[in-house]
Protein 1
Amino acid sequence: MTDLSHFLCRTKTAFGAHALSHLPFDLSGMDACKPFVITDQPARDAGLHNLLTAAFKDSDMALGITTLTDFDDIEPLYHLFVDKGYDSILALGTGPVVRTAKRLNLAVCMGPEILRSDAGPQQINRPLLPLAFIPTLPSDGCETTMTLVLDRFFVSPFLSADLAVVTPEAMLGAPDNRILDAGLTSLAVCCQAFVLSGSPLVRPHAATGIRLVMDTLLPLIQPPGQDELLCQKAKKNRQLPLAKLTLASVLSGYIRSHIPDLNTYLIQVSGMDMALALIPMLDTCKGASPWPGKLLLPLTDPDRYTAVPGHLRPEAAIQTIQQLVRDLSWTLPEEVSHGDA
Amino acid sequence: MEMPEYFEFCGRVNLVAGHDALEQIPGLLLSMGAKNLMIITDQGVSRAGLVEILVQSLDSRITVRTIQDEVPPDSDIDIVHTLARRYRKNTCDAIISLGGGSVMDTAKGMNILVSEGADNLRAFTGAGVLKHRLKPLIAVPTTAGTGSEVTQVAVIADPDHGRKLFFTSHFLIPDAAVIDPRMTLTLPPHITAATAMDALSHAVEASICLAENPLSTALAHDAIDLIRCHLPRVVNHPDDPAGRLALATAAALAGMAFSNSMVGMVHTLGHAVGSVCHVPHGACMAVLLPHGMTYNYHRTQTQLADLLLPLAGEEIFARTAPRDRAQKAIDQVRQINQGLHLATAGAHAVRLKDITDKNRQILVPLHRLPEIAGTALGDGSIFYNPEDLEYDDCLMVLEAAFHGEPLDRSSIRKG
């Protein structure tokens, strides 16, 4: 254990089938009764907003739903929100939707001028309005961090969503390169956090994220058989692993803020690049602490972990990641995979 | 990875752990816009000099308005109401709770009153009643077991009505839990053992009970690993600060785990033994844990087998055949108890009949087991136990724990 460690995650995570049906209770537990749903066109086109309508059908809460077309100008949203007296925000979608939700929340609670680039330093030291995030795809985890990057950089625990609701029914289909990118980004963040963090709370979050990626990523990327392609059921069958991978993204977002060294290693453009950068990083760290060796446990399973002698585990962990990258590279079309594993 | 159909996880506490963690408190308070403190503690903590250490760690930016050290061993509603009046009178704007479970629960209860501007705590019992964030509360645990510093519950006695009041809300989770080994260095070995076994029971039950989920299980396994690695040394060398930090951290991890996946029959029976015979909670947990694992064996073999790695370490896990791992995990808990029994010269009991008070008086007489079994049936944790429990089942387990005999698996209910 290190001399001093901090960990804070303000977001409550809910996962599973019908998880949205708990939303009215959660919102009412935060004294909210008039939620404003922000979503994007793909989610709207797929009818995902109807899931929310259904979840709130038996509650006495009236939902307002807006589909974002312009992510830059939040003034119309701000006026709509204030004029109609909404008291909470549901962000249904991916990164741009959540970023807009955070901006709106800041503007409503602290005044729209806070978003101006010349507004001067601001401390966000009190809770904003209740904010729930319902992801529709795995991502790089930026949605669940406690930061907001505009022209200016805001960081506060109060910027985190109060709730992250991951449910298979809200998963959109996604191209393989997007799934690959999200999965490998989560893997890289979680592995680095596992090895570099001194926080005893970061490691269980990271280990869970790693297990979720190792369980789901390769099966999701492997090309489906012809029968599966034609089968609606197969599409449905992908929703649970997609949700698991999305949960890994959510967890990686929680831990990002707690790893000061992370950005040193992770200024990479794609998940594949990040996974490839992970390997020399682990190689550099492997003599410095027991954690590169212990990483083998979430990457594999207890039997394989204990079967490898302690001194060989760091190398075995690296090989496991290399093998995953190789398998993914062979599975994907050439234009999607890049880098030599 | 096995996933439950649905789970929730909320660990909304800033966990600050380290050898000088107390020195972080001023910064934490100021970041919450607070600087006028009430410190709540008990007389044992006060006499041990821990309040002075805490106060010295603060700086000139923070004013300690009042120190209240009258919290009784079982928190009750009267002290909560009294402290709320003193908080207002001293115009405080934040609370530090310094102590064990009772102090933590008292502080949570008082925080409800001062934050809601209320005078009657009874109006806030149950789940989901609180709707708003409470006043800043920083929890500094002085034992390494209860995990109250990270949980969303408080239990406060209401002696006038002869009942316990339960409060559950995410808003009850302290804003920060500050884990500093200086706060547990003076704990005697047998209390160290009992509180660590309390934490171990939280972790084990969090991993096998009906609301288990992958995040809770990961936290629980890490907690168990820390306890296995550090408890034997700390019991023999109580002034080991690294070991103390590890055990206190394990208690917080286990607390967060069970706060999100609940506990089962070990706590069902343990609460009842404590309630009927006034036995320290950790002592009950240590004795009952292997029996609870055995009772649930047929329903939780996979989870129990997974527990062997953190409970016993890599070598034992690797050389135990997969089919034997669940039983080996139970044996390992018995072995930990036996090691603590020897290391504390018998003060750490491994049978209910051996639990005594400081005057060596037996606390759990055989003739009270039926009453304990009856009381257990009213405990909420019974619903999260993997296997059903009726009165006869409770009595059977209590009798086995009383005599220190293993449960006969053939007589355990199956479904």
Protein 2
Amino acid sequence: MKPSSSRFPDNAAAALANPRLRAALDTLPGGLVAQRRAAVAAVPEFEALREAARAIRDATLDDLASHLEAFETKAISMGSKVHWASDASEACRIVLDICRAARARLVVKGKSMVSEEIGLNAHLEAEGLEVVESDLGEYIIQKRGETPSHIIAPAIHLTEADVAADFRAYHTHLPADRRLDTPQSLVAEARNVLRQKFLAADVGITGANFLVAETGSSIIVTNEGNGDLAQTLPRVHIVVATIDKVVPTLTEAMTLLRVLARSATGQDMTAYTTLATGPRRPGDLDGPEQSHIVLIDNGRSEMLASDMRDALRCIRCGACMNHCPVYNAIGGHAYGWVYPGPIGAVLTPSLLGIVETSHLPNASTFCGSCETVCPVKIPLVSLMRTWRERAKQQRLETWPARALSKLWISTATRPALYHLLARVAVAIGGALGRRKGRFSSLPFARGWLAHRELPAPQGRTFQQLWRETERGVPR
Amino acid sequence: MQAARAGLFVTCLIDLIRPSAGFAAARLIEGAGCTVVVPDRQTCCGQPAYNSGDRSGALALALQTVRAFADCDYVVVPSGSCAAMLKIHYPRLFANADAATQKDVSAFAAKVHELCAFLADVRHIDAVPGRYQGRVTYHDACSGLRELGIKSAPRKLLALVPGVDLNEMSEPEACCGFGGLFAEKYPGISNAIVTRKLDDATAADAGLLLAGDLGCLMNIAGKMSRTGCSVACRHIAEVLAGELSDPPIGRGPAEHP
């Protein structure tokens, strides 16, 4: 997908001006956030689990190449074909070749963020394939021509009323007077429409939450069962996954699953946790004839060798964005690419470069909520700060911002000058603001004053008063 | 026995905007049995530079601060945000410095305490000079809460003030949207966040909102004045020390009978 992260301020302004989006986002605190809180409270050892999950991810990344080789060997021995893609275009080409070799016309997909990242749907559609998303949220936004606004709840920016209106517009073969006023009725309608697609599909594409080296399996977690149908009904199953998804053993994968669902949706486990290990074996009642696994790098090796390595621990639960005040205010689309919220503010510059994406790590209050909920303890604030340093080094800020920060440092590192200038500024500000105690407009601080008053100084600096009252004299 | 020397790190915002909160802090530290000193070689902790990606600027200010407080037993900071900068981020900034500098910085960091944590958890005070009749609510500023774990200290201290009735907001730990330069760089988003804080504060039905960080307080108070919200804002030190003669933050004398 074409990034619009460089237009973040405009994107955010549009989001803030959209009352329906705000209404949809207002459900987050009482929804995913409250659900996580309850789920975590029910597990006294949750902090220990977080630490265990972090350690598993770190240890795997330490020796990623050998775990990937082990996975490949085992997956091949279980009958899968393993493909390696260094970047998005290679990954898309591999998937297209598999589809063509299978003479496929209809592709049904489970939810996969990496397929968004590599622009897979557009690539396949341009080659004449029909691609149908089968996750309800993904189905809704695919019909709208939108991208996900959240990594686990792709249509979280929409209300039930939005979806009902869309379904009436798309599903014109159904009676116009049907009722679509409950979530249940919407789900039932989508299920009926999608069931036909599952049965007719030639190829099923899913992502992977984890790839287990020990068994050669991919694991997906869903709440709709669509992933199971996508990987068992069509003749060909293709897993697309980035190389950081590998986990050495099933036991370790289970530890990660315990923190994943609780952090994501507040469930103990998702409704479906599905392992796929190779194609249908003789005697199996169902399953695909071919199983392909496309392992995609697309910038991960570079991240692994960089100071952004910790971000590769991410297991894509979305808790950081659910708890982010900025995400809660503007939603995911404003971030302008696939991964929104705090993890997006770290990943997007890593994968696309900082030049076009420097707003993302800067547009954070650094409140730290994301770090306190991250199930694998990614130091998101520190990583965003590192990107701010890069942006600064590349002189990506505006010239007045650069000049002001230089002026501040050169003054603040000269205490006598600083205190003198502070006295003068505070005396002027105090005199002008004395009556009201605040300013409503000034020739500077326009951003601040657009929405709030600026409290006026009291008229003299603390340093000045302290010394005038002789409390500065050692007693 | 000689009283401990507590260096007051004033913070640039209190120095410039609200010295009365600084005097309140000094009074409380003295009440906790310390001699207060205010080194004049201190200016800004360097956090704005650090968080805007200017590592070298932050380093220069950090070194200046560490040296300014060399002869203090404690460094007390009436701001969780600046305290976290001094205590947690200074050692990180100097992670690649020479051994002697690192030693100085970690010794400095060990002496640093946020004001409320210092009074409640280091000096274990059991009385404060202030008294206040009415309902208040307390905003947990992000850095103090999440980087320094300050949650109970301000509440313990408020319980010592006769007349204070603390009524919590539903989300006292929610960010107010200040974020330093964030509020100026991304004003619309900041506004959306602070609006939620205002709604929460209003629902808490308190006449006074307190916090330990002037940055958050200027943001919340500034938004309250703009929207005509009647809740007043003060630094918690002012109520604890009974320094209430100045109008609340962002209010003029006419609004302070």
